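ok trying this again, last paste got cut off
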Amino acid sequence: MKTVRLRRVYVWQMPVRIFHWINALCILVLGVTGYLISNPPVFLSNAEASNSFWFGTNRFIHFTTAYIFLSMLIMRLYWAFVGNKYASWRNFIPINKKFIQKIGGVLKHDILLLKTEEDVSIGHNALAGFSYFMFFLLTLIMIVTGFGLYADSSTWFLPKLFAWVPALFGGDYLVREIHHVTMWILVVFILIHLYLVFLHDQYEGRGETSAMISGYKFIEEEVIEKQKEERQIERIA
């Protein structure tokens, strides 16, 4: 049996981990409260209406969470430029041919379970990075349409910056439908994300799941040395 030497590598910095978990909680709360807004249940009660303000409370939680979600997104965008190399924006946007080739390699690994060179990624692999970029675009759609729907009933300047959105789509109906469909796309994305995280954790044994808590992964020594050599070659070229 081949003995593999592992090195404990600090990959995910604290701001990245904070963003990940607060973002996950926000999406859960936004999904549940948003669903209740679009499909409110009927409660039969003899209580005064002023004592049964559950729908207003639900909307308050939804929009408060939306502000937190937006703040976390802005923080993560900032960290994409000042964080370490694993948090950099270059890991998310396919800026060259090599990045696209790596995406193909990861697809072979994740779908066909074939061993490829892409298994050596220390941070996000190419497919994960690109999928998070798409996730970012989906969240932008949610933010724009959500605040667009909120603009008329809000008194604060931020939502009113999006008052043009319903007019662009001919009214609230289409904006609401886009907002609703995008939410379900995010749900599917999250389910696939969870599956792949557990798959890579079991298949590679590098602490993929625990890394988003501790920040550390366990990487093979030869993989680290190989990536150092590749970076040196790129500098020379």
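PB: full thing came through this time. The radius of gyration is 22 Å.
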